[in-house]
Amino acid sequence: MSLRKRLSFVAAIAVGVAVVLAACVSYFVVRGQLFGQVDGALKAQEAAIQDHQLRIGQPLPGIPASAGGPSPYTQVVLSDGSVPVGNIRLPVSSRVMSAANGNGGQFLSTSRVGRSDLRILTFPARVGINLRVENAAIQLARPLNGTDHILAHLRLILLLLIIGGIALAAALGRLAARRVLAPLAEVAQTAEQIGETDDLSHRLRIHADDEVGQLATRFNHMLERLEGSRAALDESVRAQRQLVADASHELRTPVTSLRTNIEVLLAGAELDEEDRRRLLTDVVEQSEELSGLVGDLIELARGDLPIESAEDLRLDRIVEDSVARAHRNSPAVRFETELTPVTVEGVPERLSRAINNLLDNAARHSPPGETVEVTVESGGIRVRDHGPGIAEEDLPYVFDRFFRGASSRGKQGSGLGLAIVRQVAQQHHGSVSAENAPDGGALFWLRLPTAALDEPPSRPHDEPATVGDGRGGGGESDSGGQDDRGDPRLQDSANVRITPGAR
Predict the structure, then answer these.
(1) Global pTM exceeds 0.70
(2) Of all helices (H) and strands (E), which one includes residue 325?
(3) Which residue, among 486, 476, 489, has the nearest Cα to 358 in the 3D structure?
(4) Model confidence at 474, in pLDDT bands (50, 70, 90)?
(5) What sections of 331-405 are H helices per DSSP?
(6) Which of 137, 214, 217, 499 is the most buried (most CB within 10 A)?
């Protein structure tokens, strides 16, 4: 049975019960009033009889017509059971005999005599017979034909009212159920359309601010969240496919070159020692480049995982360690620091990786002897170099994966370092930006939600310029990541696999 039919059935039953109860109450109220009128007339005549001395052979006192008139049927029952007076034979029960013997009081009863129902009032009295006075019971009876006729008509009317009320309740209940359940039917229809078309743009109309309207509102909110989740999932899948495609393209070149050099080495009989050494050097460099690219890809794939082990960290100390590392890797570049003690909540390995990438990028694009300025303050980290700066057309894309500016093409680097910086910033509820400094060079911001500490800043690093690091230069957008490939915290790739499910 459908919900609409069940609601109609329940409404009909509820209204039917209510109508039946109302009809029963009305019937018994009317019946009581009709019987009360008859009983009142009988008791009025009883009072008139009790006020007189009765003698057998004399008529019983009556009451005026305005009070109902005298009872049409009377009977006197003596204590021995004889009936000396009576115009109808009324039933004489043991209770009547008790009243006739003076042992009982008055009472009302209803009896069927012949074809009529009679309302009988029986009460004890003293009557004179010849020269003596004896106990007796006097019975006054009035027919109930008119009352029965009225009650019969009333029963018919109430029965028709009950049937009509139930039918009307069923019809109105069905109509009301159709209107009330119309929004639910719309919900079902919308859900069916979504299931068939997989289109989450459908929305329900809010008809009223009631329970059904609240249901429709929540359903619309659910659809909005699902649509947003679907869009985010589609974007994630698209980004994963793009990452796999870009990674395949970037890996093809070093793998091909490495394979070519190895094949040439296999034909070693035709190579002199100098050529062999040069090829081995190329193989080592290509292997390092391939390892760095794979490490960056693993970091990007791992970076999409949620942060579950965040802790309070001293950002200035992490930067201080990263600056020391950058100076070891790039001794030809000077690093000047201004480190304000601040704390940040995050993962130390990921933050170190992002900071190292920023410093490596700045060192790579700084001429020998130039200075890289590193500042830690309440808003995060600022890294400024004094290199050639960033081409204006490249500024919007420097943090994109595999993007390399025109000045970086053909040089070492994977184009993933700054992408990792942006990813780490987003994981820690921060942001990154890049711009050209007014007096030359590039300025990178890594903004993080920090908290200040009342502690003097660390001693600035002001290292003298020496020789270059031998890794070559590049454009500002070529962000190749850190050199500490052997660090197990950064290069643990045994349990990481790049699949379309992880970017």
Answers:
(1) no
(2) helix 315-329
(3) 476
(4) very low
(5) 348-364
(6) 137
